[in-house]
């Protein structure tokens, strides 16, 4: 697992190559504020090799956070992350590894009949109860998350991961009430508290797409205060003094800034945005879609681009995400070494200060 000593040693090795606040606190140590995501790409050996080379280069260039999920590229992304960790000139204790469970994964390639695959591999074997399924492939029941976590550890060839996310729990809102989904999350968190006690995960979080950045009346809305309360209840049920809920992940970029602008999370002082509430609660925020899955590589709004540092549009887009108050790290899907170098170099520029970032929205 990543440690205080390991991550700070990594920061000491690379920190002078980057701008102000490039490394930020997370868990027991620090992480780079530019991270590597592994979602995009076909499930092929050729893409595996591209990811491997990009990840090795990232780990050896100042990026010590990688984000993946068991369903990404039919489990291939986790497997290539494990291979890259073994091959890179870094210690395991220096690198933060995050993965996710919730979507039932294919194995190596997409089957001709996905529905039949899920039925035969997960339902008929007794692992998944059809009552717990949403959209035929999403399940966050505790026993299922247990199994998915074990498979992820095997794929990664690791004894533990630093952060384990419950993946897109808002998917369950398609088939059950919001209160029932909160109950599901509390049961999932209780199991993850147990796995944290056993040393299999350093902490856990919630990775979402819509849940935390939409208005309260949106059909996929989930309340961050309620999620935090359910994690606290889970910790108490597991006999742990403090909750292991350490992070959230959500989309954030120039054209999807809802996590900063939409105030939908109730507090005693009035509604707060997801970024504001997470910061107040001490939760780390990892941004997905930081360059809108490549769309922002071509063009940024002129007024915003003028305020951001960077030699390229991509670098300025990354620096927008990592400049947002409360953001720990901007994740960027990177399967090419040439793209990786450009992305990492974004960190050589200082981010906007909080006042300058706020001014972008005035």
TrEMBL record:
Top-level taxon: Archaea
Domain NADP-dependent oxidoreductase residues, every copy: 35-359
InterPro entries: AKR2_Oxidoreductase, NAD(P)_OxRdtase_dom_sf, NADP_OxRdtase_dom
PANTHER family in UniProt: D-THREO-ALDOSE 1-DEHYDROGENASE, NADP-DEPENDENT OXIDOREDUCTASE DOMAIN-CONTAINING PROTEIN
Protein name listed in UniProt: Predicted oxidoreductase
Species assigned in the record: Halogranum amylolyticum
């Amino acid at each position: 697992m990543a440690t205080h000593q390991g991550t700070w040693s990594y920061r000491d090795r690379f920190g002078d190559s980057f701008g102000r606040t490039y490394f930020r606190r997370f868990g027991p140590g620090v992480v780079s504020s530019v991270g590597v995501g592994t979602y995009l790409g076909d499930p092929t050996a050729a893409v595996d090799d591209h990811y491997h080379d990009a990840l090795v280069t990232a780990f050896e260039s100042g990026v010590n956070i990688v984000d993946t999920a068991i369903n990404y590229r039919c489990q291939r992304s986790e497997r290539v992350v494990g291979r890259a960790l073994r091959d890179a000139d870094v210690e395991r204790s220096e690198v933060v590894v995050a993965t996710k469970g919730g979507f039932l994964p294919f194995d190596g390639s997409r089957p001709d009949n996905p529905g039949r695959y899920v039925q035969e591999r997960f339902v008929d074997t007794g692992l998944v109860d059809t009552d717990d399924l949403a959209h035929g492939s999403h399940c966050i029941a505790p026993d299922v998350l247990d199994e998915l976590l074990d498979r992820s550890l095997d794929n990664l060839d690791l004894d533990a991961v630093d952060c384990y996310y419950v993946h897109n729990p808002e998917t369950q809102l398609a088939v059950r009430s919001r209160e029932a989904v909160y109950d599901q999350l509390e049961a999932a968190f209780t199991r993850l508290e147990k796995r944290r006690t056993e040393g299999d995960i350093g902490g856990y979080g919630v990775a979402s797409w819509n849940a935390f950045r939409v208005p309260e009346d949106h059909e996929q809305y989930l309340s961050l205060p309620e999620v935090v309360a359910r994690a606290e209840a889970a910790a108490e049920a597991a006999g742990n003094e403090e909750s292991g809920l350490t992070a959230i992940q959500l989309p954030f970029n120039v054209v999807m800034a809802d996590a900063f602008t939409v105030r939908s999370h109730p507090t005693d002082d009035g509604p707060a945005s997801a970024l504001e509430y997470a910061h107040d609660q001490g939760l780390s925020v990892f941004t997905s879609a930081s360059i809108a899955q490549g769309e922002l590589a071509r063009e940024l709004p002129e007024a915003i681009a003028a305020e951001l540092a960077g030699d390229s549009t991509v670098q300025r887009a990354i620096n927008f995400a990592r400049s947002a108050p409360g953001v720990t790290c901007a994740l960027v899907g990177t399967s090419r070494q040439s793209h990786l170098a450009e992305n990492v170099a974004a960190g050589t520029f200082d981010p906007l200060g909080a006042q300058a970032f706020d001014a972008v929205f005035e």
